[in-house]
Amino acid sequence: MTHAVAGASGYVGRKLVRLLDAAGTPVLALGRRAEALPGGTHVRGRAVDIADTADLTEALSGIEVAYYLAHAMAAGADFAERDRRMARSFAKAAADAGVRRIVYLGGLGTGELSAHLASRQEVGTLLGEAGVPVVELRAAVIIGAGSISFEMLRYLAERLPAMVCPRWVGTRVQPVAETDLLSCLHESADDRIPAGVHEIGGPDVLTYQDLMQLYARVRGLPRRRIVRVPLLTPGLSSHWVNVVTPVDRAVSRSLIDSLRTDVVVTRPATVFSVEPMSAADAIRDALDSQRERIAERVFDFDNGLLDGVFALRTEVPVSGRDARAARLDLTECGGSLRWYGWAWAWWLRIVLGKVFGERLALHRPGTVEPGSTVDWWTVADLGDNRIVLVTEQWFCGEAWLGYRIAAGRLEQVGALRAKGLLGWAYWRAVYPVHLVVFRVMARKQARRAHALARKTSSDTQV
Questions:
Q1: Could you give the CA distance from residue 325 to residue 460 in angstroms, rounded to a whole number?
Q2: Which of the four pLDDT bands, split at 50, 70 and 90, describes residue 97?
């Protein structure tokens, strides 16, 4: 059974494609840009405009279950009309292609809805107009790294120990864990899940203020001081959020306009096998899962900020002989600051950490392997051509340092998941220094490899 995922380059789409691929399900990933689509063992991607019914019909040929996870929220003021066009096109294409069922992720809410929530629910109706059965899941805030709502929550709670907030912080919300949502989406492909609307959420109904305080508690931050001010309109709130968070302006405005509506489950779905997580466990799981993914994919990071993680990468060329030596040098870490490439800069970093209560100590393990303690780091990943170190001992948050030798170059990537306002301020303050230090570190690593290659060559000749 082949599944198609429309909107595969988005947050939920990418997660769902990975889940289906891991389960061995053939997946067709659909999106506007082929280069942005996720890959996988059982995944093939295709660029398609959902509003182009003829092209979409051809793409959906042979598909039994089609997930609709696309939306036009970032398109500006006319997003609702574009959502209508795409939904009608998808419905007709699915019917013409013989798709057995459509699975759609919409939004909770009753009564007077915002333009965003009204559009989400209208799309669910339009998808069924051509006769293909639709399983419509309605959910509120998704707790997971990369979810726009979660990232807004993260940045507000992390960066603002005290904040003046509008009345919407008292609106009730029933968040759902990312893993629970994905499980429900996965099960929705089965005929045992009846077509129709299914409301899903976790066991906790909270206000947005409660949710920010809960995030702070789980993250180990002091309780946030929140003062409600009734004069802040959604428009003013969006400007305020745009200053504090890097979330897209068009998206944040639409979302904030929706925060006036309670989004809670009124008719709990009973057809899924999922035992939903509490909000606290969902936040903890989101943070823990992100920490594991960073260690696995640190070399995919680009310079800048993404989902609460600052990253900086540097590359220097190395010759073939030096590359072989550099691989050997990766396991020579620990016990000396010289291995990092600029010893005195790291010495200053240790001194700075002492001001904030850090007690960083050098340590050389008997064998460098995954799980070994190397200085203040733990070896998170180790291969023939790479090493990734992680530490949770820094006052400013969790940090990763990775080295990889590939395609005639040495790649060095540093990442920091800043913790609280202090962590954010630390990265901003040292970023200009890091730009210089990281280049020097990478070059010195290359020089170490060159020297080791010459020594190895000399020893061989002797």
A1: 13
A2: very high
Are residue 269 and residue 383 in the same domain, yes or no?
no
In a domain, 111, yes or no: yes
Q: Are residues 326 and 245 in the same domain?
A: no
Residue 249 has pLDDT above 90, yes or no: no
Chain centroid offset of residue 405 CA: 26
In tens, the pLDDT along 216-238 reads 999 999 999 988 877 666 666 66
Longest dimension (CA), the chain: 85
Whether the per-residue pLDDT at 460 is higher than 60: the answer is no
**Beta strands 134-139 and 101-107: pairing type?**
parallel
In a domain, 293, yes or no: no
**DSSP assignment of 412-438, as one string?**
EEEEEEE-HHHHHHHHHHHHHHHHHHH
Q: If you count DSSP H runs as helices and E runs as strands, how many of each does the chain have, helices first?
A: 13, 20
1 Cβ contact list (under 8 Å, min separation 6): 25, 26, 64, 65, 189
Amino acid making up residue 129: E
Give the residue numbers spanning the domain of 155: 3-288
Over residues 248-276, the mean pLDDT reads: 83
Q: What is the pTM of this model?
A: 0.91
The dihedrals phi and psi of 402, each to the nearest 5 degrees, come to -125, 145
Q: Which long-range contacts (CB under 8 A, 24 or more apart) does 439-442 make?
A: 439/314, 440/341, 440/342, 440/345, 441/314, 441/340, 441/341, 441/342, 441/412, 442/314, 442/315, 442/316, 442/341, 442/410, 442/412
97 neighbors 57 (Cβ within 8 angstroms): yes
Counting the structural domains of the chain, the total is: 2
Instruction: Please give the structure tokens belonging to residue 449.
Output: 């490899």
Q: Which two tokens stand for residue 103?
A: 């699975």
Q: What are phi and psi of 122, to 5 degrees?
A: -65, -40
Token pair recorded at residue 76: 């500006």
- Of all residues in the chain, the percent with pLDDT exceeding 90 is 71
Instruction: Return the higher-pLDDT residue of 158 and 252.
Output: 158
Does 295 map to a domain?
no
Write out the DSSP string of 233-246: -HHHHHHHHHHH--
What is the domain-level CATH number for residue 423?
Answer: 3.30.530
| Residue with the two structure tokens 């691929």 | 21
- CATH number of the domain bearing residue 232: 3.40.50.720
Q: Quick one: residue 373, left, alpha or beta (phi over 0 = left, psi -120 to 50 = alpha)?
A: beta
